[in-house]
Amino acid sequence: MDVNRTILSVKNITKQHQTTQSSGITDISFDIIEGEIVAIIGESGSGKSTLLKSIYGLLTLDVGEVMFQDKRVLGPDEQLIPGHKGMKMVTQDFSLNIYAKVYDNIASMLSNTDVKSKHEKTLEMMEHLHIAHLSAKRITELSGGEQQRVAIAKALVSDTRMLLLDEPFSQVDALLKNQLRADLKRIATDTGVTVVLVSHDPADGLFLADKLLLMKDGQLLQQGEPRALYNNPEHLYTARLLGNANVLSAADALTLGIDTAGKQLVFYPEWVEFDAGALQFTIKDVYYKGFYEELLLEANGLQIRGVQLTVGSGHKKNDQVLLNIGRYITPDEIA
Ligand SMILES: Nc1ncnc2c1ncn2[C@@H]1O[C@H](COP(=O)(O)OP(=O)(O)OP(=O)(O)O)[C@@H](O)[C@H]1O
């Protein structure tokens, strides 16, 4: 039997920062199941970091509570070292001792009462993170990606059940990013640890997460499994954040023969069928992207962006093409 055990429960939490404008997070509630990877995503200033810090016990909440393994997470006014010992947060600066060796950075998290077990656990964690070969290197000798693995190993070695990651891929280039995303997924599966990460790049969430939490203006706008949210966004914000959504007004939709009953028409470029249907568009521009081309299409001043074709499909600038908007949604208008 599949037993889904809640490891974290966020109950109606509100935290307003002391500024003249309203800022922070308002009345947020959700549960996280043990072993899940959860990504908190949203535009800049939407409250992602405030939420992560609240979960970790770094902020004194105005209202509500965070329960980790059925115990309330205490805030900074209640205990000197915030949080809970089963949770660890890895921040963007990694907080490593840069002069110490990789091994010592990780081992320093364990007590000396059982030196043999300390050594074994450190070795085991380095194996898990694929950094055993770096054991004797100093942090200053490592790349950004390697430092990140050491930081995660350090966070996980002391029986951590939940890993909180603040923008884990912000320090690495695009090539390494895919590798690190895949690594993080593997590590979570191998160790069974629950991961909560904050990212300004929704692609991280789509790639990695079992569950997305979409923040907007300090509120939890939508939550759910990435594929479900991508395919059925309740709000325009969700479609814009997760995909390269095209948005047309109801009046513009009508000119294309689509009656949206006054709502905006939203569709991803991959929902547009090419050389099909009866909508005649002009190719206004072709953007070369390597193994594919992206088109800018226009009809009567209406533009459709992001439709992709494989290179060599034969379509070029100023060609007339027929399109069919094979699928669209008319989500609620939270911009
Ligand atoms: N310590 C603070 N004092 C005052 N206001 C704050 C503080 N921290 C955050 N805020 C404000 O609270 C709101 C949410 O900020 P937060 O950092 O949580 O958002 P975010 O989604 O993580 O943003 P970003 O992606 O830019 O890091 C913003 O309006 C921000 O200016």
TrEMBL record:
Keyword tags: ATP-binding, Nucleotide-binding, Transport
Record keyword Transport present: yes
Domain ABC transporter: 8-242
Pfam entry (one): ABC_tran
SMART domains reported in the protein's UniProt record: AAA
Top-level taxon of the source organism: Bacteria
SUPFAM superfamilies: P-loop containing nucleoside triphosphate hydrolases
Glycosyltransferase keyword on record: no
PROSITE patterns: ABC_TRANSPORTER_1, ABC_TRANSPORTER_2
GO molecular function: ATP binding; ATP hydrolysis activity
Listed InterPro entries: AAA+_ATPase, ABC_SmlMolc_Importer, ABC_transporter-like_ATP-bd, ABC_transporter-like_CS, P-loop_NTPase
Protein name: ABC transporter ATP-binding protein
Organism: Pedobacter quisquiliarum
